[in-house]
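Lecture 7, part B: from sequences to assemblies.

Below are the input chains for today's worked example.
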Amino acid sequence: MENRPLIKRIARNLFVAVVTAVLVACVTINVYFPEAAAERAADRFIQDVIGPQSETEGAFLDPSIDRRVTTRSFNPLAIMAGILIPSAHAQSSQQSVNIDIESPQINAIKQRMTERQREHLAAWFEVGAIGLDNTGLVEIRDRSAVGLSERRRMEQIVAEENADRRAVYREIAVANQHPEWEERIRETFADRWIANARPGWYFQDESGNWQRK
Amino acid sequence: MTRRESNLPPRNALLLVAACWLCSWSAHAALQFELRAGPTAFGKFTVDSVRVRQAQGTAADVIGLAHDGIGALGDLSVRCEIEAGTRCSEGRVTWNIEGADPLSLGFERRAGRVSLIGDDGGQVEYRSSGPESTVLALRDVPAAWMPSPLLAEAGLADLSGRLSGAIELYPGRVHAEGRIRELAFDTPEGLYAGGGLALDVGLDWMADEARLGLDVEWSAGELLLGPAYLPSPESPFTLVLQAHGQEQDGWRIDSVKLEQTGSISLAAVGRIVPGTPPQVTALDLEIEQADLGALWRQGLNSVAGTRGWGQLDPEGRLTGRMRIEGDALVSAGLRLSEVTIIDAANRFEVTGLGAWLGWEGASRALELGANWEDARLLRIPLGASALAFRTDAVGTLELVDSFRLPVLDGALVVERMAWRDWAGDERRLALDARLEPIDLSALTRTLGWTEFGGRLSGTFPGIQLSGSVIEVRGGLDMELFGGSARINGLSVERPFGSLPALAADVEFEALDLEQVTGAFEFGRMLGLLSGHVRDLRLLDWQPVRFDSWFETLDHSPEREISQKAVDSISSLSGGGGAAISGTLLRWFDDFPYRKAGLGCRLEQNVCRMRGLRDVDNGGYMILEGRLIPRLDIVGYQRRVDWPRLLAQLAAATESTE
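Predicted structure of the full complex, as structure tokens:
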């Protein structure tokens, strides 16, 4: 007879633990930045702007994905919850953190960036006058690589490009209901701009040194 | 053949070389010899060796010429081709310097003149009429005569152009005049460059007084100075400078004047301490007058362009003065008058603008203000107004008097506005402002929206600026359509930049449906409507996200809907128009209803619709009929493409009732 309360107590504690696990797990899933989805979205956007990569070039693009996956925190509660939560729920959580960047306004910016890329930036990337920095922006690195007639517009065009890029990163975060993701989206774009860069373009490595792709 | 070799001590040997060759050519033509000297120094120049040979003409080689500051200057060789008596009258000088093509010039020497003539047409002539006067005349001397290592020493990566002119040397005085044409230069990092430049330079140097006079006229060619691009000037710029050297203090600039006839006139005095780069330790600058339009076109536009303001086209006048001592701006006063600014991107315009700024470095006191006759912001007309700011004792920049800006028939009134720590990164803006009622029909007409009447007013107890986000505390109240609305949580991002954004929550209360539907040609509906548009976000002033809900109030006395309004609602919920026309109901003009409600959650270009309640077959009740003829409107499409919805709505409201 004395065991009953004990069993009750164990049962209650177990129940609390499971409920806690479920709650924690739900939260954990939702706050994860959807790295892979963001990368896919960034790749689509970038390839629209600079044109698609040829297949051989695309082959070595993905080391960053592996690195990110392995650095994710190990959460036993989340694993437990993963077993307990019906898979449909997990899936819907996953869907809700998909990264979407399609809107007429973002597309208008993309169109503007594509034209700018074609008219000015592509040639400047090629001769090394500008490069991709490690914050997802474009930086002037060697003005002397282009003549005076081009160079006089470089400062303004690069400033316009960076204003557009900043707006895109911010609005993608806001459109996906997570303004606080702005910095992560920017980091993802920084990685993907470099991964999608054409051979010969310059980019900044993590310590800020210029490298040639 | 006689041959003499000599191994004199270096310095003496060189003197001998100089004596033999440069001054008299005393060696007899028949005599053949070779003189050599080892390492030698002359002031800051050193040479590894010198060799003079006399055998079928005289030849001299200076090997390993170097300068303390510049470094290696290569080898110089002189070949005499024609010797008239004891003098070499024609020959060739070749300068070989590592990293550059050899420079080979012919020389002629006749009756007190020595000329150097390049194969490229350039010529330098040295004329001397005794110690009292010496002239160095240059004709079309190309910049290519300057070998690249010297270019690098001068901090240049590239130099081309031609120089003509004369340098006159008198005892204790130098006078020079030069015409530089087609000058192009570039620096190694490309930050400074020029092309097609035409410069006329005059220089006077009085050695005993250490007095320098310089005037430069820039009549053509473009310049790139960091972010600033200066196009070829519309009319020539002249710079006139008077300075004198002071033993300890570097240079005293007695006067410097920069002018562009009729448009820009700057004058300054100051002190410059030599160094790399030379430092301006004191400067008094006076902008006597400057035409803002000329200044803008002459380079200000390129700097403004990097901040997204390149499309302004200002006109007006700028005057002012500033004083710099050491690194500090001691005082400054600038005044803009009769300014008109029209933004080609249609963001704003202002006419009859006057503005001033005053700064006292010692007390860190700043005063600034502006007034204007007429202005326009995002197409909204703003009336004449004036405002002024002043710093107080603790460094807060405050509005001096309350500021009233007429907006259409209303006004924005700012009673108090203060930036604490205005110069720092942590600046905070405190604000006490209100919007006096503005006529909505004028506002909506100005903005090109569907016109509707009402009044807009509000109070703003504060504004928060963080990054590019401007958050307005407080809210706006609207009286419209016989009801009211309140806008809360208003924030604006990048208002004049790339992709302007606006966020807000709007609550609507008891709008008269007859007025609403009348304004939008929606068909006629009687009743009262409340609702909200929350989490609204506009990009480029177009909605990209919101969660809206509107429903009729049960206590409204009359609740009726017309045929056309039924069609319009059908369009809103994604169905086609003309829902009733095929049925018996078309014989009725109006239908009584019990309640109507429709919501849309816009996200990613899709409107997710909802109604009063869900009904069978996956539909949702939008309008519930009452009495006879009873009409219910049920929507079935839950996901409606937003652009298509707008198009359908436009089509529905355009068709006649």
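Note for the exam: Chain B has seven helices and 45 strands. Keep this in mind when comparing with the next example.
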